[in-house]
Specification:
The complex is a heterodimer of chains A (541) and B (294). Chain A is mainly alpha-helical and 541 residues long. Chain A contains 23 helices and 14 strands. Chain A has 2 domains: 192 residues, D-Maltodextrin-Binding Protein, domain 2 (3-Layer(aba) Sandwich), CATH 3.40.190; 232 residues, D-Maltodextrin-Binding Protein, domain 2 (3-Layer(aba) Sandwich), CATH 3.40.190.10. Classes of the chains: A mainly alpha (541), B mainly alpha (294).
């Protein structure tokens, strides 16, 4: 009898083992499965990859080989278009004439429309069944919001191409060599910041005797990625463009908070003092970047990557100049929270009649495993030094949201211990860049921008400070755009920007802001707020 | 010109020259600026230091463009498009304009046909119906989607039609007396006497085909097939910064490289710069004058 038991136990163990290996292999199809995507491409792939491997194509490259060899999936494209706007345009037209691609990346709004039209299939079961633990973990690194945005009537209609949330938070970039020359401290309050800007203007560092120094850079698009004013408004406890919780637990639009009024008033005062370019209303980010590059401006709110663009070109012109990122200042005396938003801007959807919808989940698995998995192949498949954009060759590119921060923390740990042997993966690729910069060669000099992000004084240190001290304000509304939002929000935002710019320029008195708040509510804002809160309430149920 | 006797006439001439020079300069200066930027160092260009003369002269951006296969591939496609597209345009233009230039007595339904063409200038189907036609006829994703839609240029037909009408009837009557068919009259009488108008129309359609970029992006299924202007648009227009995904910012350093953009824009304008002086002399004459004068 005992023998029988042990035999049964053995059989059980064997079958368990087998099912394990089956599960492992089940990722790969027995027969070749063709998946047809559409996609956009951009100049970086041309410049960083195809220029070096001219015989490679969009369907014949490292990533397509990988999908073919490891999964038996043959990646094909119905069409490829260059440029993000062009992709949206072409996709909208293709959808409206009924030429719907099998697999495609769309916005949350497009996903909602496609789901309502019954053109795409729910994916929650497939995702549950086929996504590996590793994938599920990475996809949830920024919380459930990327999934919430594309969940309609309880069904998940799209897979989020997840991205980083933290990197959206604004920082304060300052020319530290100017601070040193004037013997000024790093500003931590709004008053100090204004004083610093005044001192920079008065100093006339380019020495041409003209009053052409700009105190603080600001562009016509107040909330663009370049010279965004978000950080400035955050200093006043205002959160333009995102939804935040008020003291009653209700969501309110961050642009109409009282702090916004104070921020606008301060901006107008700065304008009166000549600390803001009087022509900012007609200059886009690229144009304003000319001021920082030409050494006419030493202070602005911006993103962690600004040292690569546009500051690196200033460094090239003025090798003795130095920039550093600092936490945004406070205007109220309270600790300041920098606003963030959903880092996911794109979702993969699957046409209703596709035979192997799970193929896309398997591709997600493989992408995440190759780029951030335990095998540590990041340097081959994600961003090898000789062709940084190689990851874009994959039609699906879910990014590990914490990867940049983790890379920074790995480097910090290595700097503290002096032991760089444990630096691997993407952090290693960055380490090579930092070491090249430290070597003092001409090639290394071009990597100054990277050192300003990941070095000991790097911008990620500030972001990490935000994260550790809970100094970020997330957008609390992460659902798909509501009905009124779809029809009214862009008009309301245009109105808002117009009013704000007029107040800054002094064309309207500050009271125009109160009028704007009334108009906002009357022209649909109230309705939108109600819809947003309805969504928020449904979330907590 | 006769020497002016009166000061006001003189002033008129001076003002004329002044205004026309200013207009010419306003066309020329952007081109010179582009050339100057393309020959400057990247940092100087990004800093906005370049106006009309290169700063830190360098040919680096041209060397870079020379290595970009995509640019030259697109250039070839554009040339191909101009040759095929202008050929088709001219053929359809001539064979449509000729019968429409006839009197009612010779061609009874002339007015109806003329309206049939003309109406398309007033109302168009719009983008999506147009796309549907091109899609359903299987042209999307092929080179032909660039030249077949728009192969019948109605504006050019009207220009040519009016020119044909100014051709003296006597020429045609003489040819008929000699027993020529209408087909022969068209190709051996009208076309040779209308070279001025034809050159004008050819220039129009060449410029159209060279500059048109939207169809390339709309109909073609891969950037490998883009004509030059579609390609240029994708590199020149700024990236949509508000909608950038994680890591797209790495692209900015590259995209911001104005010198390379300017080098490509300048190279792309060279063929038209060469073509214009050759055809320009027909321009004025072609539009307003008849065929048998002088």
């Amino acid at each position: 009898m005992k023998k029988l038991f042990s035999l049964i136990a053995l059989v059980l163990v064997m079958s368990l083992l087998c099912s394990c290996c089956l599960a492992e292999n089940s990722q790969k199809y027995d027969e070749m499965v063709t998946v047809r995507f559409v996609r956009s491409t951009d100049d970086t792939l041309d410049a960083n990859f195809f220029s070096q491997y001219p015989d490679k194509t969009m369907t014949d490259n490292l990533w397509c080989d990988l999908y073919r060899d490891e999964l038996n999936i043959d990646v094909q494209y119905d069409w490829i278009v260059k440029g993000g706007d062009e992709y949206d345009q072409k996709l909208n037209i293709a959808i409206s004439v009924g030429d719907i691609p099998e697999f495609m990346n769309v916005t949350a709004l497009q996903a909602k429309q496609l789901a309502e039209a019954g053109l795409i299939m729910p994916l929650e079961d497939i995702y549950e069944e086929y996504a590996t633990e590793q994938t599920k973990e990475v996809m949830l690194e920024t919380g459930t919001s990327p999934f919430d945005a594309v969940t309609f009537d309880g069904h998940l209609y799209a897979l989020p191409v997840v991205g980083e949330t933290l990197m959206i938070a604004d920082l304060l970039w300052i020319r530290t060599d100017w601070l040193e020359k004037l013997n000024l401290p790093v500003p931590t309050t709004m008053d100090e910041l204004v004083a610093t800007a005044e001192a920079f203007c008065a100093a006339d560092f380019d020495g041409n005797g003209e009053a052409d120094t700009v105190g603080m850079a600001i562009a016509k698009d107040l909330w663009g990625q370049l010279f965004s004013m978000r950080g400035f408004f955050n200093a006043f406890d205002a959160y333009p463009g995102i939804w935040v919780e008020d003291e009653n637990g209700q969501l309110v639009y961050g642009s109409i908070l009282p702090g916004t009024r104070d921020a606008l008033e301060t901006l107008h005062e700065m304008y009166e003092k000549g600390l803001i370019d009087p022509e900012f209303g007609v200059k886009d980010g690229g144009k304003v970047a000319e001021d920082t590059t030409a050494g006419k401006c030493g202070l602005f709110f911006g993103s962690q990557w600004n040292s690569i663009y546009p500051l690196q070109s200033n460094k090239n012109l003025e090798p003795d100049g130095q920039w550093q990122a600092f936490p945004i200042v406070t205007a109220t005396g309270n600790p300041v929270k920098a606003q963030t938003d959903v880092g996911t801007t794109s979702w993969t959807v699957v046409r209703k009649d596709v035979e192997h919808p799970e193929a896309v989940v398997k591709m997600y698995n493989l992408f995440i495993d190759k780029c951030w998995g335990p095998e540590n192949e990041n340097g081959v498949y994600y961003a090898p030094l000789d062709s940084e954009s190689i990851w874009k060759l994959s039609p699906v590119t879910p990014t590990k949201p914490d990867k940049n921060l983790n890379a920074f923390l790995d480097l910090e740990a290595a700097r503290a211990s002096g032991d760089y042997s444990n630096v691997t993966g993407e952090a290693y690729s960055i380490l090579v860049k930092l070491q090249a910069f430290e070597s003092g060669t001409e090639e290394g000099f071009a990597l100054w921008g990277w050192e300003r992000i990941y070095g000991a004084e790097g911008a990620y240190g500030v972001l990490n400070h935000y994260k550790e001290n809970n100094l970020t304000q997330d957008n609390m509304f992460v659902g798909a755009p509501t009905e009124t939002m779809t029809s009214r929000m862009s008009t309301l935002q245009d109105l808002q920007d117009e009013v704000f710019v007029k107040i800054i320029l002094g064309e309207s008195p500050i009271e125009a802001f109160d009028q704007f708040v009334n108009d906002f509510n009357a022209l649909g804002g109230e309705q939108i707020t109600a819809e947003v809160n309805e969504w928020y309430a449904s979330l907590n149920k | 010109m006769v020497e002016s006797k009166h000061w006001s006439a003189r002033l008129f001439v001076i003002l004329n020259y002044l205004i026309i020079s200013l207009l010419a300069l306003s066309c020329l200066i952007p081109l010179i600026h582009v050339l100057a930027v393309s020959l400057s160092s990247s940092a100087a260009a990004t800093g906005g230091l370049v106006v009309l003369w290169p700063v830190d002269f360098t040919l680096e951006s041209y060397a870079y463009v020379a290595r970009r296969a995509a640019f030259w591939r697109s250039m070839l496609i554009s040339l191909e498009r101009v040759i095929v597209g202008v050929g088709l345009n001219m053929l359809f233009c001539i064979v449509c304009a000729y019968p429409l230039s006839k009197e009612r007595q010779q061609f009874r339904f002339r007015t109806a046909y003329a309206w049939y063409f003309f109406i398309t200038m007033l109302v168009s189907g719009g983008l999506i119906p147009l796309y549907m036609v091109v899609f359903q006829t299987g042209l999307t994703g092929t080179f032909w989607s660039l030249v077949i839609p728009g192969a019948v240029p109605v504006y050019n037909i009207i220009l040519l039609l009016n020119f044909f009408r100014q051709t003296p009837r006597e020429l045609e009557e003489a040819a008929i007396m000699d027993g020529a068919s209408q087909w022969r009259i068209l190709w051996q009488v009208y076309v040779p006497t209308s070279t001025a108008a034809l050159a004008t129309v050819a220039l129009y359609s060449t410029v159209y085909h060279w500059n048109e970029w939207f169809n390339g992006i709309l109909y073609l299924s891969s950037p490998d097939q883009y004509p030059l202007q579609s390609y240029l648009r994708t590199i020149v227009i700024d990236m949509k910064l508000t909608n950038m995904g994680a890591n797209d910012w790495q692209a900015l350093a590259l995209v911001s490289d104005r010198t390379v953009k300017c080098a490509q824009i300048f190279l792309a304008s060279i063929p038209m710069l060469i073509l214009y002086p050759f055809l320009q002399r027909y321009f004025v004459k072609g539009l307003v004058l008849g065929s048998v004068k002088g």
